[in-house]
């Protein structure tokens, strides 16, 4: 029997130190294993263990916050000595020693005033304390080490055997670039050796696939400090890849009854106030002024689409109306969180808004989910769904939220679709279904989302005319499938390690004429391929055949065609399919048919 390390009671994870008799009797026991709940407790305690080790090695260390994050944990702190990558081993070693000592992890509660004087010499803890609203705070103690914390924690340090520190970085205090820079060490922790090993292998793979590195090698995109952080610049190869994705997806939308529309980049702040974005999302919006009027640069496309709906009269027979736009949006992200294409300040969403009747919500949600399913299968992504409920900051009444959340749940339940619940993770105007995809190395990404919204239609007083000639409020479904082209292409790049499938590859075919005399055939063939909308390049540099083949392979071009005397004479093609890892000799006709087939088999 595995040890119990915590309890789940309602939606709360409560450690053994905090559990009352009632909770330990009636709560769900969380055992010491690799379940998400157990990992949360384990990683929380691993962060403390790391802090304890740092404190022993660097006695003047002061700690800020040490949360659990998706893939592990980190702690932000400062020391007078500079700590670098090379010091991680020593910290890890110290952690192992401390874990082995088997300190029991104890909890006690003190008043906030007591805590303020207890940590009087520590300005970082004072800052943490000033952000805690309650009058009482809890302290966790293991050996000599004490830390201010809400928990949950393991009962003993002996459980922390499979911990690895993965990264050291600078982090601005509170994520604010005008504040001082702290040191942040990231780590991972598991219940078993195998799980740790598997995870480390995944990290290694992820590093090899880093889209910033591959993007640079393949000439897809870059960033330039002189232009600004978080503002990607697309190079021709990246532009070709992106254009293909956009074009397939565009047709896919048209086929499903979506109308292409386009709203402006700037809208008056008054409109953002009416929608609630100003009050609830304002810190992410960039503002500017024109003729002394304040405007907000759109962080979302909803308002433009609402205006389009309002522009004409609609009857119940017109619904659902589906407006879609490759909407360029800007959002203020703190510079510390910017990360390649994954977190940027300007991006393009594959955004759509479905205006429908209440009785159409379920079928529309299911239709969107089918659309999602088609797209994710094309890219070999597994995915799962999560319903996010009302967040702390929200607009609209409780009843509206209840109805909207219920309709999402019912749509999934009635169709036998499994889902998880993320309490409090909804958008400020409505609950949502998030689509979490799993890439080829097992990482999860949140991409698409479907949100049911009764609030914005209310705020903008939009209506349609029903059977009895009455004005009725429609429901608005906000949805994106890829999320953003930037982020999705970043994910695809890592998912495929840059070896994009044929239909998407920036350069799909490279033709290599061995000698000068083989040039005309190469040109002729290239022309035919261009007519089929295939991106083709001729490698006729004055270099050896092998060198040119190597260059094409290094550029991850899916197909390489070599033309020599024999090929010219017989109108054949020596083909290397890089993805399938095959070589073959086929006629020109067979080759062109093969290419056509490859393009046709992609059905968005
Ligand atoms: Zn803690
Ligand atoms: Zn929207």
Structure description:
The protein is 35% helix and 28% strand. With 604 residues, the chain is an alpha+beta fold. It has 3 domains: 4-208, 2-Layer Sandwich (Threonyl-tRNA Synthetase, Chain A, domain 2); 215-495, BirA Bifunctional Protein, domain 2; 509-600, 3-Layer(aba) Sandwich (Rossmann fold), CATH 3.40.50. An 8-stranded mixed beta sheet has the order 14-18-19-26-23-22-20-21. Helix 7 crosses helix 15 (485-495). The protein is globular and about 90 Å long. The mean pLDDT is 94. One zinc ion binds next to loops. One zinc ion is lined by residues 300-302, 353, 478.
What's this, in brief?
With 604 residues, the protein is α+β, with helices and mostly antiparallel strands. The protein contains 19 helices and 31 strands. It has three domains: 4-208, 2-Layer Sandwich (Threonyl-tRNA Synthetase, Chain A, domain 2); 215-495, 2-Layer Sandwich (BirA Bifunctional Protein, domain 2), CATH 3.30.930.10; 509-600, 3-Layer(aba) Sandwich (Rossmann fold), CATH 3.40.50.
Helical segment tally?
19
Question: How do the strands of the widest beta sheet line up side by side?
Answer: 14-18-19-26-23-22-20-21
Question: What are the distinct ligands in this entry?
Answer: zinc ion
Mean pLDDT: 94
Please give the structural blueprint.
Elements: E1 4-9, E2 12-15, H1 21-26, E3 28-31, H2 36-57, E4 62-63, E5 68-69, E6 72-78, H3 88-100, E7 106-111, H4 112-118, H5 123-130, E8 136-142, E9 145-148, E10 162-172, E11 181-190, H6 193-208, H7 211-217, E12 221-222, E13 233-234, H8 236-255, E14 259-260, E15 266-268, H9 269-275, H10 277-281, E16 286-290, E17 293-297, H11 302-311, E18 321-330, E19 346-356, H12 361-378, E20 382-388, H13 398-414, E21 420-422, E22 432-438, E23 444-453, H14 455-459, E24 464-465, E25 471-472, E26 475-484, H15 485-495, E27 509-513, H16 519-531, E28 536-538, H17 545-554, E29 559-563, H18 565-570, E30 572-577, E31 582-587, H19 588-600
Parallel strand pairs: 14-18, 20-21, 27-28, 27-29
Antiparallel strand pairs: 1-2, 1-3, 4-6, 5-6, 6-11, 7-8, 8-9, 10-11, 12-13, 15-17, 16-17, 18-19, 19-26, 20-22, 22-23, 23-26, 24-25, 29-30, 30-31
Helix pairs in contact: 2-3, 7-15, 12-13
Residues 300-302, 353, 478 line the site of one zinc ion.
């Amino acid at each position: 029997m595995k040890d119990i390390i915590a309890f789940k009671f309602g939606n709360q994870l409560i450690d053994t130190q905090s559990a009352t008799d009632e909770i330990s009797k009636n709560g769900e026991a969380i055992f010491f294993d690799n379940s998400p709940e157990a990992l949360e407790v384990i990683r929380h305690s691993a962060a403390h263990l790391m802090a304890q080790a740092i404190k022993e090695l660097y006695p003047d260390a002061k700690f800020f916050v040490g949360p659990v994050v998706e893939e592990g944990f980190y702690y932000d702190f400062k020391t007078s000595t500079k700590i670098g990558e090379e010091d991680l081993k020593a910290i890890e070693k110290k952690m192992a020693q401390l874990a082995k000592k088997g300190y029991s992890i104890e909890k006690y509660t003190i008043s906030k005033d007591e805590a303020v004087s207890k940590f009087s010499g520590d300005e970082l803890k004072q800052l943490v304390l000033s952000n805690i609203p309650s009058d009482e705070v809890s302290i966790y103690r293991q050996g000599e080490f004490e830390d201010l914390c809400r928990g949950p924690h393991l009962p003993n340090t002996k459980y922390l055997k499979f911990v690895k520190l993965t990264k050291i970085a600078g982090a601005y205090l509170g994520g604010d670039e005008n504040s001082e820079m702290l040191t942040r060490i990231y780590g991972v922790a598991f219940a078993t050796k195998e799980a740790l090993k598997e995870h480390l292998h995944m990290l290694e793979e992820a590093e090899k696939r880093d889209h910033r590195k591959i993007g640079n090698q393949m000439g897809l995109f870059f960033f330039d400090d002189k232009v600004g952080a978080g503002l990607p610049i697309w190079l021709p190869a990246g532009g070709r890849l992106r254009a293909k994705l956009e074009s397939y997806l565009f047709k896919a939308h048209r086929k499903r009854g979506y109308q292409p529309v386009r709203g402006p980049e700037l809208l008056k702040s008054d409109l953002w106030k009416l929608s609630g974005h100003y009050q609830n999302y304002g810190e992410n919006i960039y503002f500017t002024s024109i003729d002394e009027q304040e405007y907000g640069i759109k962080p979302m496309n909803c308002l433009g689409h609402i205006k389009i709906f309002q522009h004409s009269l609609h009857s119940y027979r017109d619904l659902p109306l589906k407006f879609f736009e490759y909407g360029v949006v800007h959002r203020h992200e703190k510079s510390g969180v910017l990360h390649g294409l994954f977190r940027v300040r300007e991006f393009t969403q594959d955004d759509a808004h479905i205006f429908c009747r209440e009785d159409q919500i379920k079928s529309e949600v299911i239709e969107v989910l089918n659309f999602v399913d088609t797209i994710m299968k094309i890219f070999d992504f597994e995915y799962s769904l999560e319903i996010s409920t009302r967040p702390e900051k929200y607009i609209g009444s409780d009843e509206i939220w209840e109805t909207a959340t219920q309709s999402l749940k019912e749509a999934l339940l009635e169709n036998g679709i499994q889902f998880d619940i993320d309490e409090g993770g909804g958008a400020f105007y409505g609950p949502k279904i998030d689509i979490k995809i799993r890439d080829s190395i097992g990482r999860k990404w949140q991409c698409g989302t479907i949100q049911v919204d009764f609030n914005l239609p209310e705020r903008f007083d939009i209506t349609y005319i029903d059977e009895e000639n009455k004005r009725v409020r429609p429901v608005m479904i906000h949805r994106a499938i890829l999320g953003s082209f930037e982020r999705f292409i970043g994910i695809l790049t890592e998912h495929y390690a840059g070896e994009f499938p044929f239909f998407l590859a920036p350069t799909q075919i490279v033709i290599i004429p061995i000698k000068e005399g083989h040039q005309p055939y190469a040109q002729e063939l290239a022309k035919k391929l261009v007519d089929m909308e295939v991106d083709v390049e001729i490698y006729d540099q004055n270099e050896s055949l092998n060198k040119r083949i190597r260059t094409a392979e290094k550029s991850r071009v899916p197909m390489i065609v070599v033309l020599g005397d024999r090929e010219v004479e017989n109108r054949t093609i020596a083909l290397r399919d890089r993805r399938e890892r095959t070589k073959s000799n086929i006629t020109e006709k067979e080759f062109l048919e093969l290419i056509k087939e490859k393009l046709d088999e992609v059905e968005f």
